[in-house]
Structure formats: C-alpha cells, structure tokens
Amino acid sequence: MDIKTKLADQLRKGDEEALFSLMTLYYNDLFKYGLKFTADRSLTKDIIQQFVLHIWANRTKFQVVENVDRYLFVAFKRFLIQELRKNSRYNAMYAHTLIDAEYPDEVIMVIFQQNELLSKALFKAMESLPPRHKELLRLRYYEQMSFEEITQKTSLSTRTIYNNLYEALKKLRSHELLKNTHNNILS
Questions:
Q1: Cα 150–152–154 angle (5° rounding)?
Q2: Domain that holds residue 119
Q3: Band of the pLDDT at 112, cuts 50, 70, 90?
Q4: Confidence band for 131, pLDDT divided at 50, 70 and 90
Q5: Which of 33, 80, 140, 164 is the most buried (most CB within 10 A)?
Q6: Do 60 and 111 fall within a single domain?
Q7: In the chain, how many domains are there?
Q8: Cα within 13 Å of Cα(77), Cβ side
Q9: pTM of the full predicted structure?
Q10: Which of 102, 120, 137 is the last residue of a domain?
Q11: What's the burial of 71, exposed, middle or buried (CB within 10 Å: 0-12/13-18/19+)?
Q12: C-alpha span between 140 and 3 (Å, rounded)
C-alpha cells in the first residue's frame, strides 16, 4: 500500500493529520488544476479550502480506490464546478453548457484555457478604459448590481449609467487585443 492510499484509509477512519498530509501532498497540483478553470488565484485558494472541509465532512464516504490521484482530482473537479456555478464572478451559463455536455476532461481543459486567454485579454482591454467606465462595468457585470443599485451607489442617473456602459462595451468590442485573442482562439 503506497503512502497516498494509506493516508486516504486513515482519513476515512477520522485521522485529521491524514487529511492535512493528503492535502499538503496535493495542494500545488489542485491549485494549478483549479487555476486553469478560474484564472483567479484567490478564488482558487478559497475553493481548495472549501474542498478540504468538504472532504473532511464526507470522509466516511471516501472510497477505497486504487488510484487516489484520479479519485481526488475527479472529486475536486466536480466540487470546483459546483462552487463556480454558485459564484457570482463566474459565468454560470458557460459552466452549465460544459457540464451538461459531459465533455472529456481534456476538452473541458482546452475550453477553460481559451476562456482564460479571453479573460486576460478582457482585463487588459479594461485597463485602457476611463475609471468611471471600469467602475460601472465592475458594478454591473462582476458584482451583478441592478441599474437601480448602481444609481444609489454612484448617484448617477440610470440614463447616464446606461450610456456609460454602452460606451464602455463599445470600446471593449473594438479593442484590438480582444479582437486578436478571439480570432486566434477561433482559428
């Protein structure tokens, strides 16, 4: 019995040290794997912490398996996708499409890597926008605030918010970096 299998068996029996040892062995790999899905270091760390708690809470269900690596990564992938669906910073519709299609892991990884490239290009393109445009985009699309909530927070009229968002999105659509990245992904 290898060390990982032994630790998994001890975890199933309620050994906290086994959990920490197992997670220490896998943390960097889980982090790299999760980062490919989220492109957000902080979010990935949070999800791994939640995953550790999830593993501990469900330790009695931890199966006896030949390949602990595969078992943990499949469990983490499922947990990660569940968490991303709940997270407002993640496009739930995009996750829904991927998960329901039941693509192989390799295809999902390619799609998420492409999404990561677009996210990075979008972030760089957003840096070129005026501060007000960036703030309004953040409030509307990242924090998912309604126009009324943004009006209350910024003291701007709904019409001004709408016009500024329209201009910001128009600039982003025409940004050369986004066009190039999108075209490279499609080719």
A1: 65
A2: 105-187
A3: low
A4: very high
A5: 80
A6: no
A7: 2
A8: 18
A9: 0.48
A10: 102
A11: middle
A12: 49
